[in-house]
Amino acid sequence: MKKIMIFDQGNPVCRQLLEKAGSLFGDGAEYIMVRVRENHNVAIEALEHVIGEERPELVLIGATALGEEVAPALGVRLGTGAAAHCVDIKICEDGKTAFMVPAFGGKVIGEIFIPDAGPGRPAIATVKPGTFEERESKRKCRIIDIDHEITKGMNFPAAGRGGSFSLTGRERRKHSAGDLSKAQLIFCGGYGTGSRENWQKIEKLAEKFGGAAGCTRPVVDMGWGPDEDSMIGTSGRTVKPKVYIGFGISGAAHHICGIKDADIIISINNDKNAEVFAASDYTGVFDAEAVIDALLGEENI
User: For each successive 10 residues of the chain (301 residues), what is the average pLDDT?
Assistant: First the structure.
């Protein structure tokens, strides 16, 4: 591939995607970072316009809440395929690009190929933040800032077709749990933690020891506190801490896929046959709440 475009959403995942693309395609390819500081309606049209102008062969998009809406919509408009939630991208021996996507709850990794992709009809791939390493890079990258380029004669209707959405303001969300993507120590709560109060204790643990707090899908579904931004797994975040400590986690494959690159995995569960133990370096058959309280200094195990 000679031209790769990356959707810059203003978060670290764009630099992770740039580094991965550079390692795959080298300095012989041209890299373009497209910045769009608007809602999904405008972002879709802006990217469609720039793709028509620049004719890239591959578009990489962070699988954020915004990216997960933009990617499939672009695929439909451009008549091309979008590989969602990739955990890796590889070049095969025949030169084809394979997008590695978890299937069957993360138990297997499938190779996705997008046939007939080419300039102006690019392959599209979304990648969860934290999947690829973020390094300081000197790789050359051309930046297209849509906010400014529109006013320089791109003839793009900034209001969007139909103007059904408009940006009225911005508010940065605050997370007491810390930054999962950069944390070297992560405490994670599963359904076995049992309550909203225990999830809040996990957040206190993270604050006490300078780590970050994450959770599994059931914790989000139960409404115990965190949103999907705190969720770890194939449908959430991929994390790579030095130490991961899980409480009351069963060990479903889609969660294990999100923690497999942790240096040390420690699991606490009162079920001695919990599946998570098979993926753990250290295990403890204890009541999760009791261990959490002990770490907080509230009681002894």
Answer: 89 88 90 83 88 95 89 94 92 91 77 91 91 75 73 45 56 62 91 91 92 91 84 84 95 87 94 93 94 82 48
Q: How far apart are CA 284 and CA 287, in angstroms?
A: 9
CB atoms near residue 109 (< 10 Å):
15
Query: DSSP alpha helices (H): ranges in the chain?
Result: 13-25, 40-54, 67-78, 146-149, 196-209, 217-221, 253-259, 288-295
C-alpha to C-alpha distance for 222 and 58, rounded to whole angstroms: 38
- Distances 244 to 106, 148, 240, 258 between C-alpha atoms, Å: 19, 43, 9, 11
Contact in structure between 227 and 177 (CB atoms under 8 Å): no
Of the candidates 86, 93, 94, the one whose C-alpha atom is nearest the C-alpha of residue 112 is: 86
